[in-house]
Amino acid sequence: MATVSELYDVTWEEMRDKLRKWREENYRNSEQIVDVGEELINEHASKLGDDVWIIYEQVMIAALDCSRDDLAWTCLQELKRQFPDSHRVKRLAGMRLEALERYEDANKLYDSILQDDATNTAARKRKIAILKAQGKNTEAIRELNEYLEQFVGDQEAWHELSELYINEHDYAKAAFCLEELMMTNPHNHLYCEQYAEVKYTQGGLDNLELSRKYFAQALKLNNRNMRALFGLYMSASHIAASPKVSAKVKKDNVKYAAWAGAQINRAYQLAGRGTKENKCSVKAVEEMLESMQITMS
Amino acid sequence: MAEPELLLDSNIRLWVVLPIVFITFLVGVIRHYVSILLQSDKKLTLEQVSDSQVLIRSRILRENGKYIPKQSFLMRKFYFNNQEDGFFKKTKRKVVPPSPMTDPSMLTDMMKGNVTNVLPMILIGGWINWTFSGFVTTKVPFPLTLRFKPMLQQGIELLSLDASWVSSASWYFLNVFGLRSMYSLILGQDNGADQSRIMQEQMSGAAMAMPADTNKAFKAEWEALELTDHQWALESIEEELMSKELDLSGMFSRELPTGIF
């Protein structure tokens, strides 16, 4: 079987740099990491120097994702030999136990880490992940709430909590979590858009107005967010179609919806230059927008 | 007055000036590694971590509260600042000022700091003074007043000698402070051989990171949050957005990345 370096004609330094880029940007392309990383540690381990340990950790987590227990075991052994008393390595051992569905053993391991060091966030989050894996959503939510009471600054945890609440259809609380995220990352258009979607799902005139505003904010932060553009169109149309609004509000929202519709058309025109299939989708979008107009007025 | 009044034996340069530089540098490097070996882990309690994060959250609320709806902002402000059971009003942390006598870890830290930094400096300074005494080592390039003479010309008993000519002990001290930038070049930023930084830390260490600070920090945050108002940034967002067409450039690029590299 051809190696990665042969297939793509790259040197080991490029492979190592690619792994670092994936690590820093939090990619989860586990199969690619396993391919590249496995070759790197098998062929070039001596040349990597001290980088090899963090690559072992990265490859081990990717191997657990791909169900490569053999590779995960070898990585773990190397790490255990080098760092015998490390909490970080213990957490990796716990993750491997989780992958084998030995949840009680994993829990015991995490509890021992927490006994040693009560501020260890990684172990606490893994315990919550175990609850989630076992399908115990309500307990996971409860534990995550307690965790967040102690560590209010953990953004990953806030996001996870919002996702759990959305799964439980508790949209008000999910909105709260997303507000925390929006405050700490005011320039991230994705959080604005997700918040707007939650508000839109909650329904009711005030929430629709809020959702329209936040879709607009997401668009302002990133002009190319198509989802936010459609969201803006939908929320504006819904407000305009609602019987309880004043005439002025209705007029404003019709204007917003028309603008959004025009932008959608423009975007599809840009996409559709040339190919015949794209021309069909342009036509489909136009028809959809027209049909919405009819139900609205 | 640039004429050289004294001509020093070039052996002085070879056997005194350079060895002192090497000695100072090597001692600094050794100090750095010894401080790494003797370093003790600073264990933070759960409460300290939690409190620091709460303070950060309150600060973020003040600064970025304008991005969330008014209702949400008021809800959070109420949670923090409410008269009866707001977080900043209700939480009082136990105040135990860590004096060096009662807190054993601080005591050992102080001792280690003294051993690794002050002691070698005194020892080596004294040894150099004893070994390289009785002659003039070098001349500082700027003129000095006579009051510097007893300080900088330790072993030399000449009344008429210009104060710019200094003994080896002062050359040693000059090196200690001068090689600081060399240390950061070779050992990296946070190195244990950095004398002046450590002395600064010792002076300010008494004033920072004390538990009493948490209560004061809470009070300061409470006041700041009371003063903050909510100016919703999204008030007229639709008008701003729709004033011009969307910039869709680069949305549909011809090339998609294939494969890993």
From TrEMBL, chain A:
Pfam families: TPR_EMC2
Subcellular location: Endoplasmic reticulum membrane
Keywords: Endoplasmic reticulum, Membrane, Repeat, TPR repeat
Subunit structure: Component of the ER membrane protein complex (EMC).
Family: Belongs to the EMC2 family.
Function summary: Part of the endoplasmic reticulum membrane protein complex (EMC) that enables the energy-independent insertion into endoplasmic reticulum membranes of newly synthesized membrane proteins.
Protein name from the UniProt record: ER membrane protein complex subunit 2
Organism: Denticeps clupeoides
From TrEMBL, chain B:
Record organism: Denticeps clupeoides (denticle herring)
GO cellular component, one term: EMC complex
Similarity annotation: Belongs to the EMC3 family.
Topology class, membrane: Multi-pass membrane protein
Main location: endoplasmic reticulum
Subunit architecture: Component of the ER membrane protein complex (EMC).
This protein's name: ER membrane protein complex subunit 3
Transmembrane segments: 12-34, 115-136
Locations listed in the record: Endoplasmic reticulum membrane
Keywords: Endoplasmic reticulum, Membrane, Transmembrane, Transmembrane helix
Region forming the signal peptide: none
